[in-house]
Amino acid sequence: MGTLVFVEVIGRQGHVLDRQAVDTLPCTIGRAYDNRVILDDPFVEPHHARVEQGADGGIVLCDLGSDKPTPVDDKLGLDCMLGRTHVRLRTPHFHVPEARVDPFHGSALGRFARSRRAMFAALAVGMGTIAAEAHLDDYDTDLSSEWSRVLGVFMIMLVWASIWALVGRIRSHRNAMLIHMALPAALILPLTLLGSAMQYAHSIHPMPGLLSVGQLTIATCSLGLLVATHSLVVGVPSGRRAALTGVVTSVFLAGLVVAGQTADRTEFSGHLEIDPVIRPVPPSLLSTESPEAFLARGEELRERLEQDLADP
Amino acid sequence: MEHFGHSRASRALPLIACVLAFAPQAGASQGEAKPVSEAESDAQVGAVRAFEEFGPRVVKIEVIERGSRTKNSLGTGFFIDDRGQLVTNYHVVSEAIRKPHLYHLEYVVDGESRPAKVLAVDVVHDLAIVGVEDRETEGFALTDARPAQGSKVYSLGHPHDLGLTIVEGTYNGLLEHRLYEQLHFSGAINAGMSGGPALLDDGRVVGVNVATMGNEVGFLVPIRFAVALQARLRRDGPTPPEELNARITQQVLDHQREAFGSLDPAEGTQSTLGPFSVPGRIAPFLRCWASHDDDEHKLYTRQSQQCGTQARIYIDDELYAGSITFRHVYFRSKDLGALRFARLIENQFGSTWSIDAGARASHTEFRCEEANVATDWGPPMRSLLCLRAYRHYAGLYDLVVKLATVDRTDQGMVSTMVAEGVSYETSMSLGKRFLESIKWAP
After folding, report:
1. pLDDT at B404
2. Which ipTM did the prediction report?
3. Exposed/middle/buried for A64, CB within 10 Å: 0-12, 13-18, 19+?
């Protein structure tokens, strides 16, 4: 006679701690050692539940405290809490989905992406980007500001990666510091290029509002991506859950930033705050305005100031 | 750099009134006073006589906080007729004009405080006429005579609330390069003496104490402006208290229309910075300073020129009007490359020197527009136009216009114009002419 039902004990993170294939019924579950399935949980009775054949031939779980049977669905199985233990019952007919396809399976790219070499390369490219960016902001022959910027960013990444590595170690006993360093480093170059593209666009045609919204969007998306990939590395159960964590975290942080900016805007600064972006663009590409049209914008300024004056 | 520091010091000048709040701390210096023998020189006879004869015509003016009935600030005033009219500085009484529900004005004579009220103001020249009742003190004789440079002048007032004091000094003529006419007095004018008279040997008043730069560099308002204000008061009658703010706004507007209306950055003396022609000392009332940095560790050279009005009109401690400043910074790249040079220009474009942070009570925030603006001489310039409004003086604005060249990768310039307390129309016409004034030199 084949297996009639599987009794699985599920851990807190959703993984199976213990799986028993049951081929004879009834089968008792409890803390006592005469049970078929023994649960080491002080909140479980010595004889807590019994799996048996129901009146209609299906399999049911009877709580020995209540005697009321609960059927185990062939397709969905049955999840229940016995004491503080999550117990899952599944019949051999339980449907499992097809295997997930690994897009990099067997490819050289996939192997490279997971190699130490790639991780060091990502780190080097990211730090190089930071150094180049610092170099553009510095106008003397001295390289100390470039080095200090690289060091600063590296330290921040180290703290960030250490937190993730610690979480990974707690969860799966894996110490994968390098990959946690490589993940943010890999994002630096594409983000810088994307930001530069926006700055060039702003330089060609000034649109200060759009620039700040764009920068916030990029920051939000990349943070979401980063959280999701780190989550996968530390071993969350599914890609979907990792993506959800990324989305929730980034939306939460973006919300904080927007709230902070809104509060900032209502706060009176009194200063003239200019945040210009000027990039070397051939003059023929610039979208230009006549002096008259530009000064006519003074009217808009005046109207906005009228509103500011009306504001108490 | 020394020179810029110097010009900054002069901007802080007309703050005598606010210094007064700290007057009690000045008491310490009393102990250092040295006795002077009575017949030290003939010169002192003049001072002794002036003090005895004219002292009673000078009074202390106090701004009193209504709740505690305690003084908030003080200055000096003097009678100009026998009908109870006193001349003082506008900045001495401004707090009582602006916040009549919190402060009122009193004058102190023979140790007794009596009420006083503002009858007329001339905010441009920092003068006010204050009226008092039941007082028939003889007034000073006023003179518009210009004594010879080096003549003795006696300044009277209440420095740091230490009692009526006479200071002997030298008349050094009309200050040059001033938008607002002032006399140069070499003598120790101190906080609290604001609004006091400056007399010639014969007792006629030539000016009103108004400001100091320290080190015996003092400034007087020529008395003819007080005479004109008195004439206007006789003609039009006293200004009702509720109309004083509007009157102040009007005076600032009239003044800046006259001073800046014909000011054309594209005309007059132009300066050359690298290949650029920029507005230089385009009006006699502007003073200019320049600097040139060529540090060997830096990959660029930086040359700058700044022209501006020396003084500005005091409206209140947080609000000034009637100043205009031009600043041009020219960069030449030694070995920066296009990307870094553009960022250098960007940095300078983002710097906001010389415009004070406003207070919520007095200003709105700045509102700005930014664009690449076409020029008639060649490539477009990155341009920024910013305005903020004065809350209690409708129609007055602070204007900032910034221009940056964006076409060259080896040299470029950032020019800024800042005008304080100007009308919208003047702002726009100044902005237009400023845009037209920056050119490649032919």
Report:
1. 94
2. 0.79
3. middle
